[in-house]
Amino acid sequence: MSSATKNIYDDVTYYFESFSKFLSKAKIDGADIWNEQWSKLTAQFPFEADKDIRMLTVGAGAGYRECLIIQHLLKRHSSIHITVVEPAQKPIDEFKVKAAKITKEFPGVSFEWHIQTFENYQKAHRVSDDERNGSFHLVFAGHSLYYMDDWKYALMGCTVTFNQEGCWWLQYQSLLTSDDLKSHLNRCSNVVFDQVVYREDPYDISDVFDESSNEGNLLLDFLVQRSGFRKCAPSDDQEKVLTFLKDNSVFENGKYWFRCDEEDVVAMK
Ligand SMILES: C[S@@+](CC[C@H](N)C(=O)[O-])C[C@H]1O[C@@H](n2cnc3c(N)ncnc32)[C@H](O)[C@@H]1O
């Protein structure tokens, strides 16, 4: 992508504004489908019911999906500790409000908060299979690996922190890079790529095609992960991107629905 534009994550406030705009354009509230899929997934976890469960979540944002996972885990486990790694303060504050409600209702659930990038967390917490150094039964990274400087290194950090007893590593990833992830996992000797859970999630991106729409430009910036794309990117790049977005959308009732597929890539040790 053109260097005339900046990485959208350089301005975290702007990033979350555009991310919220993107989320608000979803056709369906995916919670029901997701819950059904994750209810099945968590029921397959091989942990004993009376075990204290340790979960790591990487790039949690406001913790929406983590809270759903916790609800599923609570069906079988009463003691769950969640280590949250997320570099941005604002979503962490929102997550803490949800977490307080959970811990009030379920005293066996506890959280620890690391407001830092996963790269820095990895440096500060030496990864090891030794439980005393902090290994986990479950590692969840929701749409966050592609923000890492080196996702393969981050992935290694996720997988070696599994504890020994047949654990799972879970990744919630877009179709764009999940192929890379799957082929990489297939080459890793310390984990077994287990399954993929697929969802279709169309987003209304009609405003993106209206040059004068501030909302559309905000949305466009999230889609290309650059800020000021319409203002700063060369017109050739803009044309290519807009053609790609249109070609990958379905036009229905006067709206362009962009086909955003999502895959949860599940691996276990
Ligand atoms: C697209 S959001 C996903 C939020 C949430 N997990 C979800 O699935 O809705 C990406 C998240 O990754 C976080 N992030 C960005 N760079 C990161 C890094 N280097 N380490 C950990 N998290 C990072 C962002 O702050 C943001 O909360």
| Annotation field: number of helices | 10
Poorly predicted runs are: 128-132, 161-176
CATH homologous superfamily caption of one domain: Vaccinia Virus protein VP39
- In CATH, the architecture of one domain is 3-Layer(aba) Sandwich
How would you explain this protein's 3D organization?
- There is one protein chain.
- The protein has 269 residues and is α/β, with parallel strands linked by helices.
- It has a domain at 31-200 and 262-268: Rossmann fold (3-Layer(aba) Sandwich).
- 42% of the residues lie in helices and 24% in strands.
- The protein contains ten helices and ten strands.
- It has helices at residues 12-24, 31-44, 64-73, 89-105, 118-124, 151-160, 175-187, 214-224, 229-232, 235-247; strands spanning 6-7, 53-58, 80-85, 109-114, 138-142, 168-174, 192-204, 226-227, 249-252, 255-268.
- Strands 2, 3, 4, 5, 6, 7, 9 and 10 form an eight-stranded mixed sheet that branches. A two-stranded antiparallel sheet has the order 1-8.
- Helix 1 crosses helix 8 and helix 2 (31-44) crosses helix 3.
- The radius of gyration is 19 Å and the shape is globular.
- The two termini are 36 Å apart.
- It binds S-adenosylmethionine.
- Residues 19, 58-61, 64-65, 85-88, 91, 117-119, 142-144, 147-148, 172 line the site of S-adenosylmethionine.
